[in-house]
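Reviewer 2 asked us to include a model.

Predict the structure of this chain.
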Amino acid sequence: MRLKFSILRRAALVAALTVPAVAFTTAKIEAATPAKVQAVAIKGFAFTPQVVTVAPGTTVTWTNVDEDPHTVTANDKSFHSAALDTDDKFTFTFTKPGEYAYFCSLHPHMTGKIVVKAG
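Predicted model (structure tokens):
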């Protein structure tokens, strides 16, 4: 009986040590798809960069680094942020190709544009 148990233990140990190595060598490693993200800073009473070109599916994040509050408001009303205080952020994901002009509703002279191009 002792010999039988020893053989089973040895077989289990070999199997335990072999399986992870086989699984590791046969695993398919895929590169992570980078997230589509674009940043726009609100500083000096301007959107920087003022014009951004992105692919469909890109999320744009505006960050207010000014001391004064600002908004991000699409001319066509497709998106609108609340008033953003210093360090506040607003994000919007652009899914359809086109040009999206926007402005700050508190300071209408502040303008910008997102251009969404497929391919």
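The beta strands are 37-42, 47-48, 51-54, 58-64, 73-74, 89-94, 98-103, 111-116. The CA atoms of residues 11 and 17 lie 10 Å apart. We have added this to the supplementary material.
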